[in-house]
Each structure stands twice: as C-alpha cells, then as structure tokens.
C-alpha cells in the first residue's frame, strides 16, 4: 500500500516493448495548494509520446504513461487556486511546472524557464515521484498549466490543441503572422494542420510545403492558399524572397533535405522557425545560405498560458475544427494507435476517448 | 587606346600571385547621369579583399584592384545627381549598385536586392567592364552608394567604416541594440572593434567574446563592459540566457567551435547574427540547441544608405575613433599589408593613404 494517492493509467514498461501498454496503478505527488485534480475525458496522441516510449529521445523513467494533450473535468481545486473552478472543463498540455519567478516566467516565456517540468516523465523534486501523462484516469497539475476550454470546442477537438495546437500557434503570433503576411507551413501532419488552420485564422496568406502532392487536397480543404511540393523541379523558383515566415513542423531532416532551398523563399530577415524536433543529431548549414536575404533560423517551444488562452478563444470564435480521428482508449487500441502514428498513418491527429469505459465513470 | 575612360590602380593578376600588385590602367564604365566620380584619398583594407584576391571565395575576374572602404573627393557629378555635391568629401563601401525598384530596394534593404553589384569584381552589364575597387586613383559610382563624410571624422578613420563599420552597425540597430540590452561581439578584429564601438555608442551593455584573453585590454579600452574567453573552463556559465544579441564577426568556424555554447548565452528569442563569412563550407547545428531558449541564428549583409548616413552621424556626434594603422599605398606596401591581414596581424584596421604620392595630386 503506497503512502501516496494513486491514479490508474496505461503504461509502457520499457522502450523495448514500446507497443505494449499495461494498465497499472501509480503514485501521484501530494496535492498542493495551487493544484487542480482533473478526471480525464480524452487525450491526444502526440509524436512526442512515440519518441519517448520508443527511446528515440534518450533515457526516460519507466514504467511510464505518456500523453500530454489532456481534456477533462476539474474535480478538486487547491485552496489557493484562482484560475480554475471546480467542475470546469479544462485542458493540460506538455508542460506542467516552472518556477514562475525568473525573468523568463515573468515575461510570458515560462516554456523557456530553466526549471520547467514536463507533464510526464519529470521527477517531482520532493518525493522522487515521476509524473504520468494523460493515458490515465486523472492528472494533478498546478493551476498555471490548467486551461479552461471554451464551450464551443468539443473535447476531442480541443485535446490536440494542448500540444500540437499551441506549438504551431505560438511561433505564428510571436512572428507577426496576420493580414499582409505570407506564411509557409512545412509538413502537413498533426502540427502542420494546426499551422494552416491558425495561420489562416490569423489572416495570413498561408502555403503548405510538402514532399509530394498527396496532401494537397487536404491542405486546400484546411484553407491553405497554395501548396508547394519539393519533389517538383524548381519548386521554389516562383516564390523566392516572398515569405515572411516559415514554420517547419518537419521532424526529419534526412537525406536530400535542402535547407538552403527553403531559406531562399524568405524575404529580408524572414524567419525559419522549427517546431518539430528530429531524432537525428545534426543539421548542416552553409553560412552563405543566410547572406542573400539576411534570414534567420530558430526554434519555438510550446507557448505561454497567455497564448494558450488566446488560441482557444480564437479557435472558439472562428469555429476552428481540428481534424481528429477518435479512438476508445484501451491497451490494445493504444498499441495500434502509436504504431499508426509511428508510420505517419494519421489524418491529422488521434484523440483517445471513452475514458469512462476504461477507468470508470 | 581604349574607347573607354581609364583610371589607374594596383591590381592582382591571379590568385596564384595574390601578394603581388601591379600598377595598371583599366577601363571604366561610361559616366552615367547619376554617377559621381571620386578622386580617392584613402581606402581601408578588408578581409574580403584578401578572400577575393587569394581565391578563397571562388572565381573572380582578374586582373583586379580590390578595396571597398573608399574615401575621397567628388570631382564630378552627373546631371541627375542630387545626393552629392561636387567638391564634397565622400565615401564608397562594398556595394555600388542595385535596381532601386524592387521590394527590397524600396524598403531600405538594397543590400539584399537580387540584382546588387559589388564595388569591385562586378561585370557592368552593357559593356562587360569589370569594376575596380579603391586601390585605385579614382572610382565612378552611382550616387546612392556615395556618402558625404561628416567633417568631424578624419578620412583615414572614416574609410573602414564604409564596410567594416556598416557591417557591424546594421545588425546592431536592426536588432534593437540600445539601453537595457546586453550585446556580445564575437571576435575582436576589424569588424569586431566597430561592433564594440557602435554597440557602446548605441547604449547597450557590450561584451566581447574571444578565444583567449590577449585582446582583453584593447576591448576594455574600446569601451567593452566585459570580456569572455572561450578557452576558459565553463566560460559561458555565469551568463546563460542573459544576452539579447550576439553579433559574430568570426570568420572561421573550425575545429572546436561549439556554437551551442554561444547560443546558450541568449535570452528567449535572442539572436546570433553572423557578419563574418567563413571560407569553410558548413556549420553543423543540433536543432535541440535552439529549443531551450527559442533562439535564432542568421546573418546580416552590409547596411542600407539610410543606415550608413545614421552611422556616420553617430560616429561624428560621439567622436568615435576607428583604431587604424595607416600605410602609404604602393605595390610593395599593399603586398605587406594583405599578408599581415591574412595573418590577423592588425589592430584593428589598415587604411591605405598618401594616394597623391602614388597617383598624382
């Protein structure tokens, strides 16, 4: 009998068996004054989940229940909680803690706090407990990382916004995507489809850049103004120095990836912002590639609480619909789902649902 | 007898003999309505000159007189010239032409015009004449790239501002260097010393990052607030996530160059802007290096006419003194000087002077 509270979740026991999920009980850190306890209703399936359980991102603490696109009901709030009400429908994303005291935290950059902790796999300092993600019955989270969900957005569509959505939204607003701007989204997957939806909602001319034309019809259905396939000869020729921003969701910079051809699309001081994190080690760049337009490349990591609330408001007001395939949560379905995601067999996000059937009402 | 006007200059005949200069006559493109003819008084010696004549930057047209940090007297102005008066002391930098009609040109980004031409080595479209630089008696340049020099700045100190100065100044002002900002200048050479002088003049807290401590006293004498030597153990530890901007003047990213250690110095969305262009092919980057602070890397190329005039005004008002060693121009002295520059034996810029002795008054 543990001295800690326990929740139940679907855990992977080791990267060697990353396609096998076990329904286990696990310890939860003590309930804090600023904590919110959430009975989970659904959870999106993120590439990070696959990278983590399969060991692609290095050592992790196992057994582990992943999942960080969580929507559920706040069933208990700590005595000092002011941001969330008991009974509210809320979401939790990929980050669950930061110091809230440093310069980064105080400037709405808490996702860059040096002391940040993720929603799963982080070791809780006082207890040594490893926090567990949203393939679970409940989650216990500091109120700063708990976000009320507007009524207009169904839970299964809100869930993937908690990570994929905010990851695409933040670099768009931080880099001025809006009317009069021309934005490219590289890669049409879970992140990329949100990139298109949000870039359009913000009013930017929005293009998709993909390897082939196979997703062109989907891109247009999401609202994209144009589509470029890098397999085409001279694919970038008609658009040199015309884009203000490229948000890259590519999670692979493999053989044949020609960064310079993308950078040549950027107008003066335009930016390439990467939000996909490849498992491969290195990206090779010729400094000369930056010279003809003074462009910049960089990365963006999630988004702030302020941006999360703004994104949800925009999504509610504009009626943005995530493209989601729902799957009832179970050990078997999780196995199938992570394998399908591993093969990129998804259009464009899975949300695990029917939590009551798996964990009780 | 050439059908074109001719000037005299010290030319290199081939990269194989890049340390040998020949005093030759050369053809000049026809005088245009917007052109200014300048009798050269002095010219700074830029690393680009060495890269160019030694073949480090690939094929060039020889014979060639390099030099693009020119100061002299406007002795003739075309009928449509409005920006320069006959008799004025003026400067010419590394760029001498762009279309002035494209989006880049119309937004003070003429240094990124796809049709830009350099001050030397560019082929003049109508005649096939290869333009020649400032190791010459005269230069003939479109008025847009001819800059009146404020009286307060001696010619030999103004000359290196035409390329090294503006190259360092532009990324500082374009990226907000000023009061309350913390700026690092990587490498204390010709460009770097202007980086320190201008960053301080703009009001930013300014640090120098160098391999060793050998230039620390000079950096402080230039006004630097601090100095970091990358050979020191844990050299970046006390400054993680504190810099807003790093301007890199390093012209080599060789063995042991650890970009990630520099990027870790940047605050959220801070920028590494490279103004040195290495001869080596590639820079290798882990995308992860950008994630912890959402930083960006990029490059900057020269600066606009508007910035050139603002820089000269600032230099005049603040009494900025370029650190210059003057050398009388001659075939022999040019040979010695480019070889010294090639070995980085310069503190911190050479200006070739005494043009009257070489070319006549």
From TrEMBL, chains A, B:
<dbReference type="InterPro" id="IPR011032">
    <property type="entry name" value="GroES-like_sf"/>
</dbReference>
<dbReference type="Pfam" id="PF08240">
    <property type="entry name" value="ADH_N"/>
</dbReference>
<comment type="similarity">
    <text>Belongs to the zinc-containing alcohol dehydrogenase family.</text>
</comment>
<keyword id="KW-0862">Zinc</keyword>
<dbReference type="InterPro" id="IPR047109">
    <property type="entry name" value="CAD-like"/>
</dbReference>
<dbReference type="GO" id="GO:0006066">
    <property type="term" value="P:alcohol metabolic process"/>
</dbReference>
<dbReference type="GO" id="GO:0008106">
    <property type="term" value="F:alcohol dehydrogenase (NADP+) activity"/>
</dbReference>
<dbReference type="InterPro" id="IPR013149">
    <property type="entry name" value="ADH-like_C"/>
</dbReference>
<feature type="domain" description="Alcohol dehydrogenase-like C-terminal">
    <location>
        <begin position="190"/>
        <end position="316"/>
    </location>
</feature>
<keyword id="KW-0521">NADP</keyword>
<dbReference type="InterPro" id="IPR036291">
    <property type="entry name" value="NAD(P)-bd_dom_sf"/>
</dbReference>
<keyword id="KW-0560">Oxidoreductase</keyword>
<dbReference type="GO" id="GO:0008270">
    <property type="term" value="F:zinc ion binding"/>
</dbReference>
<dbReference type="InterPro" id="IPR013154">
    <property type="entry name" value="ADH-like_N"/>
</dbReference>
<protein>
    <recommendedName>
        <fullName>alcohol dehydrogenase (NADP(+))</fullName>
        <ecNumber>1.1.1.2</ecNumber>
    </recommendedName>
</protein>
<keyword id="KW-0479">Metal-binding</keyword>
<keyword id="KW-0597">Phosphoprotein</keyword>
<comment type="subunit">
    <text>Homodimer.</text>
</comment>
<dbReference type="Pfam" id="PF00107">
    <property type="entry name" value="ADH_zinc_N"/>
</dbReference>
<dbReference type="InterPro" id="IPR002328">
    <property type="entry name" value="ADH_Zn_CS"/>
</dbReference>
<feature type="domain" description="Alcohol dehydrogenase-like N-terminal">
    <location>
        <begin position="32"/>
        <end position="151"/>
    </location>
</feature>
């Amino acid at each position: 009998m543990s001295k800690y509270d326990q929740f139940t979740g679907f855990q992977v026991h080791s990267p060697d068996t990353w396609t096998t999920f076990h329904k286990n009980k696990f310890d939860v850190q003590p309930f804090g004054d600023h904590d919110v306890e959430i009975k989970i209703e659904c959870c999106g399936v993120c590439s990070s989940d696959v990278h983590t359980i399969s060991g692609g991102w290095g050592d992790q603490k196992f057994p582990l229940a992943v999942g960080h696109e969580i929507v559920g009901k706040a069933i208990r709030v700590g005595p000092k909680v002011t941001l969330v009400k008991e009974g509210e429908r809320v979401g939790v994303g990929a980050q669950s803690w930061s110091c809230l005291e440093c310069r980064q935290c105080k400037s709405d950059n808490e996702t860059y706090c040096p002391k940040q902790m993720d929603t799963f796999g982080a070791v809780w300092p006082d207890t040594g407990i490893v926090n567990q993600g949203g393939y679970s019955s409940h989650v216990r989270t500091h109120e700063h990382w708990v976000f009320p969900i507007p009524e207009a957005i169904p839970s299964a569509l809100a869930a993937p916004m908690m990570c994929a959505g905010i990851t695409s939204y933040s670099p768009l607003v931080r880099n001025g995507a809006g009317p009069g701007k021309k934005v490219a989204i590289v890669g049409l997957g879970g992140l990329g489809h949100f990139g298109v939806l949000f870039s359009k909602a913000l009013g930017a001319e929005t293009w998709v850049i993909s390897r082939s034309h196979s997703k062109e019809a989907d891109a247009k259905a999401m609202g994209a103004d144009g589509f470029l396939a890098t397999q085409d000869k001279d694919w970038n020729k008609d658009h040199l120095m015309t884009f203000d921003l490229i948000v890259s969701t590519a999670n692979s910079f493999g053989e044949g990836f020609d960064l310079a051809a993308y950078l040549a699309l950027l107008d003066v001081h335009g930016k390439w912002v990467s939000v996909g994190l490849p498992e491969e080690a290195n990206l090779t760049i010729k400094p000369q590639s930056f010279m003809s337009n003074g462009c910049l490349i960089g990365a963006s990591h999630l988004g702030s609480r302020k941006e999360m609330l703004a994104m949800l408001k925009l999504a509610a007001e504009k009626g943005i619909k995530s493209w989601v395939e729902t799957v009832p949560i179970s050990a078997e379905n999780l196995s199938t789902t992570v394998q399908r995601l591993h093969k990129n067999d998804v259009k464009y996000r899975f949300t695990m649902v029917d939590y009551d059937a798996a964990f009780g009402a």
